[in-house]
Amino acid sequence: MTTITGNWDDGAQVIDLTRSPASMRAHNVSAWFGNHKVLERVSLDISAHQVTALIGPSGCGKSTFLRILNRMHELVPSASLAGTVLLDGEDIYRGPKPVTDIRRQIGMVFQKPNPFPAMSIADNVLSGLRLSGTRLHGRSAHAVVQQSLERAGLWNEVRRRLSEPGGALSGGQQQRLCIARALAVEPRVLLMDEPCSALDPTSTGVIEETMAHIAHDVTIVIVTHNMQQAQRVSQQCAFFLATHDTPGYIVESGPTEQMFSEPEDPRTRDYVHGRFG
Amino acid sequence: MRALEVNALGFTWRSLFCHICRLESLGPVVATRMKGRNYVSSSVEDIREERLEIRVSRPPADRVYRAVARSAGAVTLVVMGLIFLFLLLRSWPALRDARWSFLTESKWNPDAHQFGIFALMILTFEIAIVALTIAVPVSIATALYITEYAPRAVRRPLTSLVDLLAAVPSIVFGLWGRAYLEPRMVNLSKWLARHLGFIPIFKVTTNTFAGSTFIAGVVVSLMVIPICTAVIREVFSQAPPGEKEGALALGGTRWGMIRAVVLPFGRGGIIGGSMLGLGRALGETIAVALIISPITDKTIHIIQGGGNSIAALIANRFFESSPFAQRALMAAGLALFVVTLLVNAGASAIVSRSRSGAATEI
Ligand SMILES: Nc1ncnc2c1ncn2[C@@H]1O[C@H](COP(=O)(O)OP(=O)(O)OP(=O)(O)O)[C@@H](O)[C@H]1O
Ligand SMILES: [Mg+2]
Q1: What predicted TM-score, i.e. pTM, was given to this entire model?
Q2: Homologous superfamily of B92-359 in CATH?
Q3: Contacts of A112 in chain B (CB under 8 A)
Q4: In what order do the strands lie in the sheet with A79-87?
């Protein structure tokens, strides 16, 4: 499905323009690990072209929800779920599309950078395409590598060392390499689970810039514990909460500005102002 | 029995490796000293700084455990050393008689003072290579199935089943190979000779197919599979889950994920496991002795009847040999011992290196 069109020779036209950012909608999503229910009827609209931030205390199910959005949840052996998840109106769990196809359209960046350490930087960027059966060579491969690394804000740092192993980069660079790798397959949605939690402020700044930069081409959902970051990068925001015996649910969601200035729920106000617990 | 020996050996090498690793704990001390020197050179007052002696006091339980583990390792080493010495002493007259020609001579005729290990070693390796050619791919596939494909519920039973295969005595494999497998394999051998005879190793110069290197190798492969599988499975199961998820999240299929993450990660385990299997295959005795039609000239025609291995030769000949021929057989045993030890040591080094690589966060 990943059709990369355009004239390779001038290296200018790499993005397939038919692959525009998609909206997503979760409706009454519940999730279990074994008999332990961790999400309770979560519904959320994720609009295209926007950055949606998921916030909430630890253990409230943000990662679980995010992983449900690109069908990674089902990889945990005991996991199960209920509800509906739509990608541009199409059910990703009940639809006819194979799961590999869904995941290609909905990319993911993990909390811990996970490049393939033995592969070269260039091969890392191309790995998503290879995994989906697209082998690029020569100029076309180079164009994809350059474009993806540029979009992830890493090109200038690694342009001279593309054949070095991906494991030789710093943590922040590895994370941007992972972003580049995810962007190379032209996803329509990009899920990011605390992408900056292991990084220093400078790398965090670079990644936030990267996000602002790519938000035109891809819908972004980010989980973050950093309220300032949520305010800086997101336009929409959802506040998750779980207590000892109730599974996680969304207390409030809406435009980030409103969530931070005049939240409807007192618990949201407490959380975003750091007065929680 | 044999599996135990291999394990004991593995344990020794691993504990040796641990001892070597423990030397690394000197690292910080050395670093402290270096720093001390820097301070000395840059400080205004020329007072000798007192260097920190770092002493780790271990709790008693720890010390007891260390003592037990150490002495167990030491005992194994001592026993192996004694075996080596014993073989060397017993075979010395024969070795002195044959001198370097022991390594290059192909005939085995001790009573005529013409004997050497060359052809026998080649024949031994031929059986081992046939065994590995079958065992390694099967082991990789089995390990992949157990770690990546099998439903959780059957993983454990399957693992034990494979381990159980290692517990079957080799005489049982030998009997089964001789009585059941061989008559059926002969047809396959004929087929191979007819259709692939243009390849030298599949060519036949006689009309017998029973008792061939090929059939012995197939039986030995069954004994090698559990060892290879255990090592390879262990390493595969340590493939970093973060990278595996990364590959799947990119839209990779399971097989794509295996090729991108699990196989590159497990390469050391595959090589190490295969070499451990090689060590096992080189030393396999009774099953080979039961099946093979012994010859002592080297041949590359593995399909036709006739082959040998050092272990099988010793088992077949020992009690009907003259005292001097017995010493020659001891020398052959010594050569096998050394080669097997080297192979095992190499395997352990590779396996432990790949494990320690797995332990470092990538
Ligand atoms: N693999 C798993 N097996 C069993 N329970 C799990 C598993 N992963 C998560 N959980 C449980 O699910 C609940 C939600 O976890 P989740 O990781 O989604 O929280 P989170 O909001 O992402 O937390 P954090 O902010 O700390 O990352 C927690 O109670 C957790 O213990
Ligand atoms: Mg989380």
Answers
A1: 0.80
A2: MetI-like (1.10.3720.10)
A3: 242
A4: A36-46, A24-33, A79-87, A90-91
